[in-house]
């Protein structure tokens, strides 16, 4: 099956019994990670976030929240008679953040982007779809350039799409409209909708290595051939049947793809956290049930796949899961009780958790140092090319609210620095000399990456090339997030602390869709700063 160069809109992009029981673990705490406060306020609450190829991050909020704390450029105002709060809008609801300058500027988003979706296209443009009210059929495009702003296509979608696939829209479509101009029914979406609650919005969608889509909603998943509109495989329900899709919001990742030269590449999905059955309705009454403390992991290409359950050190709902360049997974943001929704979550989880997927099942979790800023409903996170994780957002209220509430609308930006960024590892950290950033690389080709490592304890066998696809993050899911571990074919010392690392790129667009990636060289678990490459 050919690799997709379009966005699947539903995503938007769109053992034995003992083995199924939760595995408990030894609790481990980290000591070398830390936090940076980057901006006390960017003027808006970042409930959607996307890193672009120029190391700028686009963030935006809903436009019908009333005035933000950031004026539109040059004193301009927008007239929007459809806005339910202000028909004359003079403040910004989108910003562009320059990562290395640590500066931001206001952008002009023209329609309501609340609870929408997005994906980076192969040319590096951000395609962003749907929204609220009269904006549910909008497609918006942002091109990374010095003077660019949002461009909008009024009826770019066939149907209204609010909350990614769309509330009550049990179907999918493609953009751009170069495949088919019609929507196609997907009964799985109606089958996973709980009456009066839903529990299947923002489904977790991953491109499998065979070109089919793994789609998870509520508490179960399918493997879907989107070309022929056929369900290839139905996966068993997660043990216990607890809901893990919005508003009982868990999170999920496709674990790093490795052994890429193998005839059959192993693909695993990890789903963590969420809310117990009944939590949503109870939270409407002011009763906040404990969040789930489980993760479920499944090998999606196995002939008879089964979920393997693990127990997290901290329960978490509305959390995010971010792939790190060394292959670990970061669990961040969220609450320990309640669900997603206005005023429906309590007890913020301030501590992060690191998950090491290659460790023994009982030693995969490690608690990280906490933030002091609660990040609950409508929080975001994104990996940056220097290995930091950018964190923003959190607004559990229907409007901007800064007084008289336990959890304020949060306008700040932070960065989490994983332990691999500690200064004590500086001599182990590779510096990429060549290729230069923004180079083009082709499928299934061998390339040489030259690095400098100023250490007398270089372990050539530990060097590994990794590639990360930046994700569109909102509502506890990083759409299109992907990490490929190329390893190394050969490492050659060339003198003066320089090493040539040879690695082979992925073999097809099913393994790695075309587009721009962050490329890292990892040495003894310590990643270099990433460079941008375009895979085609």
From TrEMBL:
InterPro entries: Gal_Oxase/kelch_b-propeller (IPR011043), Gal_Oxidase_central_sf (IPR037293), Glyoxal_oxidase_N (IPR009880), GO-like_E_set (IPR015202), Ig-like_fold (IPR013783), Ig_E-set (IPR014756). Residues 1-19 form the signal peptide. Keywords: Signal. Residues 429-534 form the Galactose oxidase-like Early set domain. Pfam families: Glyoxal_oxid_N, GO-like_E_set. The keyword RNA-binding does not apply. It comes from the Eukaryota. Residues 47-420 form the Glyoxal oxidase N-terminal domain. This is Galactose oxidase-like Early set domain-containing protein. It comes from Gossypium barbadense.
